[in-house]
Amino acid sequence: MKITQAFAAVGALALLLTGCGTTEEPAEQAAAAGGAGLTVTDSRGVEVELDGPAKRVVGTEWNVVENLVTLGVTPVGAADVEGYGAWVSSVPLDGNVTDIGTRGEPSFDTIASLDADLIVATTDLAENVITQLEDLAPVVVVKSADASGQIDQAKENLNLIAEATGTESKAAEAIGEYDAAVAEGKAALEKAGLAGSRVAFADGWVADGQVSIRPFAKGSLMTDINTELGLVSPWEMEGDAAYGLASTDVEGLTTLDADSFVYITNKADKDFTEELADNAVWKSLPFVEAGEVHRLDDGIWMFGGPASMTQYVNALVSTLTK
């Protein structure tokens, strides 16, 4: 009788252990599949709760779309896909990304149809738009720009998106590539005797036959990168608090003490320097007379993340050291 009871106890224990095994296995599988939830704190200080690392992500601005692709996450939706293809070449989008509308006015109906795990927006988007997006999916907002430290802000944005998508190692890799490009570029400029050169970076456009020039003054991303490379910005005007951008015209360049004038435009727009080809003021500028006006390759996004920043460094150093 005692032996029978012992076997019964062993059998009950075996059943109990078997039962525990069946409840643990799905939990382990869920953990392996990234089923555990996570919380990230965005640039607003808002804690955004996700079911797990986001896979189906929508980006409302080109810099966040660039960061997603850099991290190996192809967004299911992106703003102005055609424009992205023209202006951002560091990490191209594939052809399967749904266009959600313009960068300032995303289509809520289109985004709702994408069943997104996450929407990544920037502080450039109106607060009421962000509020409406939060009805569709969790929204992480990154700070679009910060003239007090553009490079650190760009790295912070990439790391925040990486945290939300579980791609932290990819972020570290991209940031490491940028830092290495700066170190190599600075050494190349020093070797070429260009350390301390006064390099003015700008873009511009033509409207109704009039040329507008936009200096990337102190606090802009390009000038911050140039400073890391050991170059000096000759722009004396003050830029805005977010992007470090100023405004001038060709007459405003007469006081610019620059060794080189470097700019970016796009084949989608008219090259503003062509409009100035016969302009007497432009032709009299010392850097123009010296042949030190350089157009960088199209598709280097001037407001991008570490991928575009690395692309800019390589293009600028190659151009200046030719």
- Helix count equals 12
Whole-number average pLDDT?
Answer: 91
β-strand number: 11
- Gross geometry: globular
Ends distance: 97 Å
Q: Number of folding domains? A: 2
The poorly predicted ranges are 1-34
Order of helices and strands: HEEEHEHEHEHEHHEEHEHHHEH
- The CATH architecture designation of the largest domain is 3-Layer(aba) Sandwich
Radius of gyration: 26 Å
Sheet with most strands: strand arrangement:
5-4-3-6-7
CATH superfamily of the largest domain: Nitrogenase molybdenum iron protein domain
Q: Main beta sheet, described?
A: 5 strands, parallel
CATH class of the largest domain: Alpha Beta
What is the oligomer described by this structure? single chain
CATH topology of the largest domain: Rossmann fold
Pfam families: Peripla_BP_2
Organism: Arthrobacter mangrovi
Subcellular location: Cell envelope
Main location: other
Describe this structure in words.
With 322 residues, this protein is α/β, with parallel strands linked by helices. The protein has two domains: 38-168, Nitrogenase molybdenum iron protein domain (Rossmann fold); 184-320, Nitrogenase molybdenum iron protein domain (Rossmann fold). The protein is built from twelve helices and eleven strands. The protein has helices spanning 2-32, 62-70, 81-87, 108-112, 127-133, 150-165, 168-191, 221-228, 272-275, 280-284, 286-289, 306-320; strands at 38-41, 47-50, 57-59, 77-78, 98-99, 118-122, 139-142, 199-207, 210-215, 260-263, 293-295. A five-stranded parallel β-sheet has the order 5-4-3-6-7, covered by helices on one side. A four-stranded mixed β-sheet has the order 9-8-10-11, with helices on one face. A hairpin with a 5-residue loop joins strand 1 and strand 2. Helix 7 (168-191) packs parallel to helix 12. The longest helix is centred in the N-terminal third of the chain and has 31 residues, at 2-32. 39% of the residues are buried.
